[in-house]
Specification:
Number of helices: 15
Helix content: 55-70%
Structural class: alpha+beta
Shape: elongated
Largest sheet: 6 strands, mixed, barrel
Strand order of the largest sheet: 3-4-9-6-8-7
Number of domains: 2
Distance between the termini: 27 Å
Oligomer: single chain
Strand content: 15-25%
Number of strands: 12
Length: 431
Amino acid sequence: MNIWKISLKNFRYKPLYTFLGTLILSVSIALLVGIQQLDKSFRQQLDNSLGDIDMVVGAKGSPLQLVLASVLHIDNPTGNIIYEEAKNILRNPMVEKGVPISYGDNYMGYRIVGTTQEFPALYNATLKEGKFTEEPMEVAIGATVAEATGLKIGDTFQSSHGLAETGGHAHNDLLKVVGIYHPTHKVMDRLIITGLQTVWDVHHHESEPSYSKEAEVVEKENHHHKEGEHHHDEEGHEQETEHEHHEERDKEITSMLISFRNPMALLTIPRSINENTNMQAALPKFELERLYQFTGVGVKTITWIAYAILIISCITIFISLYRMVRDRAFDLALMRSYGANTFQLIKMVAYEGFMIAIIAFGIGVLLSQIGIYFIFGMITDQYKQKMPFELGYQELLQTVFLVVLMVLFAIAFAIYPIIKMNISKILSHEK
């Protein structure tokens, strides 16, 4: 007696019940696997993007916005701060290093970040080809930027004002690509890195007034006239030097990324900055943990919905198996009379239940991956950030265990009529 073949025939006995049980179980598995994978990828991506950043110093405003703008580069900055004032923080012995960043322009939606050569080290980024930026108007691009824009070493392009891909006017200055970084799967991949001086120069040129040709001639004549005069005294030279120093002091940056030497700095430095300066200090790990709490509500809600659907699918499978046992009671009793034991009949029901579970699990995982693919595509289009498309085996095993447990419960209740079967009554058509 081939129990497996009989189970296959029973599997097709009531196709509607089998289809409904498989469909509902597939939906619950797709939700469970998909939301777990999305939550894990989201958290992993945010944690990776922190790099070695312990604190962010920027303009007063929302600390979460400051972290999202300066660390994850997915929001608008809270404002600018004076560079000289920000550098005073680096004098604290508990501060290991501070990396300034300044931005406000983009190219095809990818942000152009003015910073120092210490910035790539925060993300352990290394050059794939080319060199680091050394001169103004030189840029090094992340792997995602290179792939999406097609920029190569030696190419030039014009940046657009603002952080949006469309709507900003193009600057006149040409930026030259001198380096391309290896993929890091962090925020570094979608940034265009240049020096601070480049950002300052581009915006300084934009703010300069345009003169007519007549005004240019007058300016040259005045210049020649001044050269003929001999009033270059020491006082004028000192005033010019003081003016240049004043311009240097007034240079602004978007924020300063700080790394600490020891954890004790977390308790004192942020509070001191917030209370004693016109700047704001935000702790990325703390702010992202708050963000996790906000997003965690939605994740938990969808997870509980998936659990509810899983319970409903379990009930549907139980009804399908139970009806099969009740409707084919005569055939099962006849099998018992020909020598089949109770355990063989139980195996037949169990095979059918596990066939539904296996098919539903395969369909559910496939549906979840299709959904995740489209969600990640939307994230890439909106935030220019590629997320790792990885399926967590630990979460997958947990879902497998939960599904098997629920199917075992359904089978356990469905085989009750087999255990209590009265062969003589069934064969004599007595109910």
